[in-house]
Every structure is written in C-alpha cells, then in structure tokens.
C-alpha cells in the first residue's frame, strides 16, 4: 500500500532510477546491495505563538516540540514531506532542514539507536523531535552493523529490552505538586452545576505520571475518588473521554479489554488497538494489571472469546516474545522470513495462517519493514495485497494492523483516526480511545498530526471539529494539543 508522497511498492520516485529512496550508510562504510528504504518522516515546524507569548528561550530551537503541553504541536505544511537522498549518496551535511540538536523534551538520545534511554520512567519520551528520523530507521541497527551485514548471532536476551511506554512502568514519585489542580477539579464539580471547561483544561494536559499524582492528591486532600466524581458530574461522550483520561493509559487498556470481551460478540477493533504492535514490556504490564483489577487471567478471557486460529494468533501476541527494538535486522534472517511467508501463502495450496501470524507477531518494526521491502523485491508483490487475498475476517484485520504499524506507526495511527470518523456517523468510542492513546506521548501526537495532514490534506483539528461539537469537541481538541 502506498501513501500519497510515498513511491508505490517497487516503483522508483520521479527523477530517480534506483527505486526507493534509501537511508545513506554511515560514513566510511560502503552501501550493501538490497538495503531497504527508510520509514516516512514528517517535517517539524515551529510551534505557533499565541498573542502575547514570548519567543522561545535562548538555546531552544524553533523546531523543538512545544514545552507546555496543551499548546498546539507543530504540523507540516500540506504536501511537504522529507525525502531521503538516493541510496549510496554521501551522507547529508547538517544544515537547513536537518534536525536541530535539541536538549529538551523530544531530543534524540545521545547513544546509538536501539540503546535503552537514560531517562527514568516518566521522563519525556525518548523519541526524536518532530520531523527527525524515527529512532529505528528501516534497515538501521546499532552501529557499526548495517542491514545486510552478518553480525554474530546472539540470544534475544542479550539485546536491551524495549522500555515500557509512558504509564506502563512501575509507579514513580515525580517532583510535581498536584494539589492546585486537585483543588481546581473539586471546585469545578462541587455545588450547583459543573465547570466542564476547567475539567477539560486540567485533565487533558497531564502526562501519565502527572495523572497518577493528581488522582492521589485528589483522594488525599478531599477524601474522594476522582473517577467517581467525574462520572457523577458529566455525561455522554464527554464523560467517556474524561474517565479515559483520569484512569491513565494502563488502567484504561484493561477496562477496554474487559468491555470488549463482555456480553455478546467481541469488539475486535478494540482488541487490535490495545494488544497489537505493543512491546513485550507493555504486554506484560497489561496482563499483570488485568489480573490485579479483575482477578482473572487475560489469556483465559481471550481464549474464551476468540476461536480457532485467531485465538492462537492472539496467544502468540500475549506470549510477549516480540523482538526487542534493539534487535538488529539481519539479511539472512529476513530472507528466511520472506521465503517462509511465500511458502505459507502464495507458494502452496491453502494457507499456513499460524506461520504468518508468528512472523508478524514476533518481529520488531525494523524487521517488519525489511520483510515487506524484501518480499516486494523478490516476488514483485505487495505483502499487504498477499494478506488481503489469503486471509479474511478478524485475522486479516489483525495482520494488516501489525504490518501497517511496522511500516509507519505515525501514518498508521492517522489512518485509524480517519477510520473512526469516516462514513456514516462517527465511531465515537474508537475515536476517543485512539485520540487519547496517541495523546499520552506528546512527540507521538505531533507526528500523528503531521502524518494526518500529509495523508488527508487537512488538519486533524479541522476534521475533529467537523465530526464533534460542544464540550466533547473541546476535550478531543485539547488532547491533540489545541488551545481551547
């Protein structure tokens, strides 16, 4: 599948004879034949300054993500997309358009890609700034190795584990006083009427650790439960969104899973959103929290709700055996996976579904990108097209979800948001879950906005305004970083 601005699979961009744009090799290294293309990137633009706002502090680049969460994150101008020089060209010199050397929120980690970030859990996301190359470029691995090289084989345990996402690690004590916001929330809900704007302003601008501190402060100061108070004072989709914020990402995930598997039928899209493409650390945190909250094993509930090979697919996912992000892309292993995928699908009568599920569920994003590229080069067919032809139903949707997320996680999230708003009526529950899940990581949210504008040629904010209204609209806009 090709997005606008991307060359279609197997076709070179205009003006270039060599096929995909390629990430240039590190200095002093010769490129190796068959290196895969980089993942799409989105330019970072200066944050919009409101009336009366001071210029950025000295030493801070205008390309850095906004310092105050809730301020509008940057987005690329329509049609602008950062392209890579041809494969084998000299490395570009730093200059205009190169990611600035940031030292604040969103700065690229100083160590090699794939190494664990030095920040403690709850520190700003270790992903690079908006518009900078994604941390794990297609075909890139910890230096000095390169895609196509044959590094010594190491057990998976030797690679540094991918850290948990914000809100999925152990509890942390942060140096932030939540008492003022706790009092503001109580004042907004006590007495006659409710100040919804204050609820939105306070709750939609907190990161996962601040939200945990705010819940604790509300209980300590007022001897009340924040989630229960918000439920009693609000209603409709605004209530759904605010409760999602109050719970934080991990607790909300387990509630979504329980709701998706309760009653008649299964909400397959929710299972996909919560479980697919997650790191091993996140999956283990979700299983542990599900057990703590509901006194049930998540694996047992999934087995009871799914059936046959789709059940086995999700058991592989819940096994948390995905390659860590630091695991390199090895040419021989990619070739083997590509051959196995062909043998399991096009190369035989019938389909070996579990082989395909196992490969896409246990490879990291870099490896999935390399597999998709190599499959296209070897068999002249798009891997997404193969999945569509060989699979159907929930398994098809789950495999496409894993493939697309591996190819470009920002564009994939943008597509999921559009899917929740497209067609007759708005899928409000999905829209709220997807907006707030992206919102917990500020740099991720800014990149998703840029990808959305690149794909659909309009801003995410304008699209949300066309689908929602009132306090519900204001809540979603605050979550994507708009001033309200």
TrEMBL record:
Domain-level remarks: A pair of annexin repeats may form one binding site for calcium and phospholipid.
Keyword Transmembrane among record annotations: no
Name of the protein in question: Annexin
Source organism per UniProt: Cercophora newfieldiana
UniProt signal peptide: none
InterPro entries associated with the record: Annexin, Annexin_repeat, Annexin_repeat_CS, Annexin_sf, ANX14
GO MF assignments: calcium ion binding; calcium-dependent phospholipid binding; phosphatidylserine binding
Listed Low complexity bias regions: 12-22, 40-52, 59-70
Biased composition (Pro residues): 1-11, 23-39, 87-145, 152-169
GO cellular component, one term: cytoplasm
Keyword Repeat: yes
Family, similarity comment: Belongs to the annexin family.
Gene3D superfamilies (UniProt xref): Annexin
Keywords, in A-Z order: Annexin, Calcium, Calcium/phospholipid-binding, Repeat
Annotated region described as Disordered, given as residue ranges: 1-176
Domain of life from the UniProt record: Eukaryota
